[in-house]
Write a structure and sequence with these properties.
Layout lengths: L2 E6 L4 H11 L7 E7 L4 E7 L2 H4 L2 H6 L4 E7 L14 E5 L2 E11 L2 H10 L10 H10 L5 H9 L4 E8 L4 E5 L8 E5 L2 E5 L3 H6 L2 E5 L5 E5 L2 E5 L9 E2 L1 H6 L5 E2 L2 E2 H16 L5 E4 L5 H11 L7 E3 L12 H11 E3 L1 H4 L3 E6 L6 H12 L4 E6 L27 H8 L3 E4 L2 H9 L3 H4 L2 E2 L1 H4 L24
Helix pairs in contact: 5-6, 9-10, 9-15
């Protein structure tokens, strides 16, 4: 997961983009960058680290112009290294071109090998650079036409922002895997991964950029094109479960509302007698409220989060991920001592974090711990932009629920069913709930993977099971 933000036709473009990236920091904490233009030249700055540490006033002053795109990154393709930080900026025969990408191209290695055989030289090892090379090789007349030509060759998930010295282009892949929204700030167009970025910069939300849509923004306004092959939408379910901020509207629903609905459905499926419902903050809070409301069990914040520590799921190093549990969370002994507790979390990946949290709660005197998960068991890796580990590392791929419960040392463990998840998302509209990619739970991948493909994440080739 990454976050992208762009603004066109604003006198303080880089300052607005800085605020937008700050709102999207939860989507990536490895690196951040920005490219701006004044209509004649382009200016770039990228560093490893957090937005607030990278961009200070002198840096933003150097990012001149009335248009800017920015990116916060965590890696799914390409190592965590400054050479892979985005936006990726090149100078080619047609001028400067910057690109920011949220997603994962499933055929990137095949195209990259082909291009290198013809003499292309790559500056990074991220999949995004493949699009840049395809644009540079195109013989079409305009940036827009060259981009369309390039996108007809790539597969996978992509929400993109491109910037030249004269235009900004926003793109969403035909499946709509990753979110992308359009807004307006007075006379300026704004594009972002989530609507929470609009709230901070006081931009008005216009609409989602539709799956397969290309939005071409120039001084003359915005024009919409749909030149890509149509596909049935397959929105990423994990945006609701974990990644998006609860104050965002994603895929036509409020994240906070959907997470509360997850909790209510989970209560219907696996209610139990207890004294307290406590969330694992922050992404578990909304669902725990829904669970508590549905069962009538009091809600308490029995785990206190240190907000100066990053999200453990997206930290790139295993040592940081494991050590980060104690840095990030602490149990409130007065709240949990002697209590039968329902602990609500959004997902279980390896189960190591849950095991450490349960140990922490028991050390503080919890009498019983009943673990409830507001998503189904994660059994399959994601190849569309979520950094899940290989299948062998996903505990639910090789262990039954009761075995996971034993490993975690909880008294009971229950997951939300796939049907319950769909009911919560559907909100009465059954067809909407089937527009989601749930491959990480079901193994039903919307896209066929090219034979011979070798992504670092992929350990086996999976065909569409629909």
């Amino acid at each position: 997961m990454c976050g992208i933000f762009g603004i066109f036709n604003h006198s303080e473009a880089s300052n607005i983009a800085y605020l937008g990236l700050h709102s999207l920091q939860h989507r990536g904490q490895e690196s951040a960058g920005m490219v701006s233009t004044d209509g004649y030249s382009v200016y770039s700055h990228r560093e490893m680290g957090l937005v607030s540490d990278i961009f200070d006033e002198p840096t933003l002053e150097k990012l001149r112009g009335n248009a800017a795109i920015g990116h916060v990154r965590y890696s799914t393709a390409g190592s965590s290294d400054i050479k892979n930080a985005q936006p990726f900026l090149v100078e080619y025969a047609k001028g400067p071109l910057a690109i920011a990408h949220n997603g994962n191209l499933t055929n990137a290695k095949i195209i990259r090998d082909e291009l290198q055989n013809y003499g292309s030289i790559f500056q990074s090892n991220m999949d995004t650079e493949v699009i840049v090379h395809l644009i540079a090789l195109s013989h079409e007349n305009s940036t827009l036409e060259r981009l369309i030509s390039a996108l007809r060759r790539v597969e996978g998930s992509y929400s993109l922002l491109l910037l030249t010295d004269k235009e900004m282009i926003a793109v969403r892949d035909p499946y709509g895997f990753r979110p992308l929204v359009l807004g307006k700030l007075k006379d300026s167009f704004v594009v972002a991964s989530e609507t929470c970025a609009f709230d901070l910069v006081e931009a008005s939300y216009l609409r989602e950029i539709e799956p397969g849509e290309i939005l071409h923004i120039t001084k003359d306004g915005a024009r919409s094109f749909k030149p890509l092959k149509k596909a049935a939408p397959r929105f990423c379910i994990f945006e609701y479960i974990y990644f998006a901020r609860p104050d965002s509207d994603v895929f036509g629903r409020t994240v906070y509302g959907v997470r509360k609905a997850f909790g209510r459905e989970l209560a219907k499926e696996s209610a139990i007698d207890a004294d307290l419902v406590i969330p694992i903050p922050d992404s578990g809070i909304s669902a725990a409220i829904g669970y508590a409301q549905a069962t009538g069990i009091p809600f308490e914040m029995g785990l206190i989060r240190n907000h100066y520590v990053g999200r453990t799921f997206i930290e790139p190093k295993e040592s940081i991920r494991h050590f980060g549990v104690k840095l990030k969370l602490n149990a409130d002994h007065e709240t949990v001592r002697g209590k039968k507790i329902v602990v609500v979390d959004d997902s279980i990946v390896r189960a190591t974090t849950g095991r450490k949290i349960i140990k922490m709660l028991r050390q503080q005197g919890a009498k019983e711990i009943h673990f409830r998960v507001t998503s189904p068991p994660t059994q399959f890796p994601c190849f569309y932009g979520i950094d899940t580990p290989s299948r062998s590392e996903l505990i639910a791929s090789s262990h039954e629920v009761e075995e996971i419960n034993t490993y975690m040392t909880s008294d009971t463990l229950e997951y939300l069913s796939i049907d319950g998840m769909k009911r919560a998302i559907g909100n009465g509209a059954d067809s909407f709930s089937y527009n989601f990619c749930d491959a990480c739970f079901s193994g039903h991948y919307p896209l066929r993977f090219p034979w011979g493909m070798e992504l670092e994440q992929m350990e086996l080739f999976v065909q569409d099971k629909k």
